[in-house]
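Format is sequence with structure; example below:
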Amino acid sequence: MKKALGFLLLCLVMLSCKNTTQYNDPVPQHDDFTIDSKIVNETRVINVWTPTNYKSSNDALPVLYMPDGGIVQEDFPHIANTVAKLVENKSIPPMILVGIENTDRRKDLSGPSDVKEDEQYCPLTDGAKKFRAFITDELMPEINKNYRTTDEKGIIGESLAGLFVMETFFLKPDTFDFYVAMDPSLWWNDHYLERNATRYLDNFTDKKIKLWFAGSDAEDISVHTNNLAKTLENEAPEQLIWKYSDEPNEQHNTIFRATKEKALTWILNVEKN
């Protein structure tokens, strides 16, 4: 109730459907197809990038999934180009990148909220639950059927997509093997995930999971990412390998590009034993 007007405007920028900054990233060669989803009741466009030697080899590869994975004014081109460079430099192992193009990211990427004020940014009705089921029950089988994949899979996202990454990490940690979230909108639902982190960690999966997350200078986000890092320092289970990157010199609209390479390099090379 006491949120300042500036804070509200900042949140609107954070949750807007498209980033107003234009980078004109070259669009790499990739596949695309559509899925007529029964779960979200929409036709969804999927973009898939594979390494240059994918077709000439028989290797099965891990898969990195990304919301905000469209071509126009979304993040697929710049993440695909980044993964391509890191693979070429042997900084990370080869992998397949799967981008999910948005229709309404506010609906897809937000969980439930009991905070009436949140309704001015996103629906309060837990669209993330259906979107997560679409990924696991419809998209993943399609990718596994049409591409040579290993069992290893991860997810990457920023801002509202980062919130979806973190919610999946806490609620359904077995969904992915590794999670990357830049400036996740943890303020959502009165910072519910951060407030309840200890409870979720007490009941965490026995599976080995990796998490990398970062916070910028956005005060309404960094306070919660910093608090979450403190909770993890004390409560993280042994099977969770995690790293927090505090980035006070980065802004909300710069942190994804500023940290993507070190995030992927760390999470795909961190000691697994």
Residues 1-20 have pLDDT under 50 and may be disordered. The chain has one domain: 5-267. The radius of gyration is 18 Å.
